[in-house]
Amino acid sequence: MSLAVPNSPLKVDEIQGRGRGMVASRPLKAGQIILRDSPILLYAALPFSTQSLSSSSSALASSSCFCYHCFRTLPPSLQGDSSSPTVLCPSCPHHHFCSVACLSKAQISTHSLWLCQALSHLQANSQLLEQSLERQVQARFLIAAYNLANVSPSDFQILLSLQGSSDDDTIATAQFLHPLISSLCSLSSVNPHNGFSLELTSVLLAKDKLNAFGLMQPFSEDDDQRSVRAYGIYPYASFFNHDCLPNACRFDYVDGGLPGDIHNTDFIIRMIHDVPEGREICLSYFPVNENYSSRQKRLLEDYGFNCNCDRCNVESNWSDNDSVVEDNAEFQEEVMDEDQYENEAMVASDSDNNPQGDSNDFPHAYFFLKYMCDRTNCGGTLAPLPPHGDTPPNVMECNVCGKLKSDDDLDTDEGQDEVPMED
Ligand SMILES: C[S@@+](CC[C@H](N)C(=O)[O-])C[C@H]1O[C@@H](n2cnc3c(N)ncnc32)[C@H](O)[C@@H]1O
């Protein structure tokens, strides 16, 4: 049975072999915004301790200073500055907020007294501090999830309705983390959740594993290991299935907007190219430039399925050394001679990303040429700006580095028509 998505041209449908998925309920245009989604839960991707972590994680932990409610980067003058008591949590020395407004909102939601005390206790727990970054961040998730059960029971039910069931992995993690969380229950008169149990903890970890999205630190060309600043659970975005050649991609602008406006953590999902009504809309769960074996491994280990999308079917016959990115230069020369590729409608036709049909050895090269960001260490996907008002036509935006690029670059020398980036 279909479920309409509010304020969106999408519906949630059952897709054979994939569970629920997002489907276009009318034809969609390149660049069109098809969903704005606000998180029901956000938690920092930081460890509780910087000891025994890799140097890049330690650098992140000590240098990153963001508001613990809206997750915007704090201005340097506020970072760790004890002379700004109005933006420090009054109950602990660890958490900073960008404004009194954010602190006030946090105290009745994301930073309740119980959550604050729970995090402070974990900060001093030597057993947890010896654990991997992943496990320490999972502890943060559990605290945030049990806090959600208190402050917004309806959102907690939404979290429970997302895909994900206990498995050996989440049970093992729950067996370690649940006793720690149990010991925090008596910290406040507010009980974390009536159904608090080892089983529930394991189920929650499974929901997190399949549905959490990373909000990344700002892009830098010098950094090939971009860190995650925070993770979020987005109730509608969680319905998108994966495709290694997606037809939509997500944008977030965490450091954007005005302080106090909490929509900075919203996701905006935009169409990469046109699709007809009834087509499933998919995101890629990671950068599209990963090779076949690494994609298959990640999808199986992290999401529990073998991908058999069109691209995987083609690339399964390639050797690991074959790379679409390297072969792209060769393909680009061929494309320049062929007018057929200029027609956007062809890209959006039934063979979505495959204007040449399956007879070509390298059918998806057009996608990489047109929709993959070529900036060093970026790996982002380009989608046209939303089609309206005075927006210049044919301008593509990268969803990782924010670079704007004219679509006309396809027909010119590389980079010639780049559009200057705006802040
Ligand atoms: C974030 S959820 C997506 C929505 C989910 N299908 C549902 O019913 O709620 C991720 C899960 O969807 C399924 N999934 C996503 N993409 C898939 C694909 N291309 N093929 C098969 N299963 C897929 C996997 O079970 C994966 O763990």
Q: Give the overall shape.
A: globular
Beta percentage is 5-15%
Helix content: 25-40%
In whole angstroms, how far apart are the ends?
Answer: 43 Å
Per DSSP, the total helix count is: 13
Bound small-molecule species: S-adenosylmethionine
Region (Disordered): 403-423
Protein name: SET domain-containing protein
Biased composition (Acidic residues): 408-423
Domain SET: 8-286
Topology at a glance:
Layout: E1 3-4, E2 10-15, E3 19-24, E4 33-37, E5 41-44, H1 55-63, H2 100-107, H3 113-123, H4 126-129, H5 133-151, H6 153-161, H7 168-182, H8 198-211, E6 213-216, E7 228-233, E8 241-242, E9 248-252, E10 267-271, E11 280-283, H9 292-303, H10 310-315, H11 324-336, H12 344-347, H13 365-371, E12 382-384, E13 395-398, E14 404-406, E15 418-419
Parallel strand pairs: 8-11
Antiparallel strand pairs: 1-2, 2-3, 3-11, 4-10, 5-7, 6-7, 9-10, 12-13, 13-14, 14-15
Can you offer a commentary on this structure?
By secondary structure, this protein is of the alpha+beta class. It has a domain at 41-214. Helix content is 31%, strand content 14%. The protein is built from 13 helices and 15 strands. It has a 5-stranded mixed β-sheet, with no helix packed on it. The chain has a 4-stranded antiparallel β-sheet with strand order 12-13-14-15, with no helix packed on it. β2 (10-15) and β3 (19-24) form a beta hairpin. α5 crosses α6. The chain is globular, with a radius of gyration of 23 Å. Residues 55-63, 334-351, 353-359 and 411-423 have low confidence and may be disordered. The structure holds S-adenosylmethionine (SAM). Residues 17-21, 163, 210-211, 238-239, 241-242, 303-305, 307 line the site of S-adenosylmethionine. Residues 403-423 are annotated as: Disordered. Residues 8-286 form the SET domain. InterPro entries: ASHR2-like, SET_dom, SET_dom_sf. This is SET domain-containing protein.
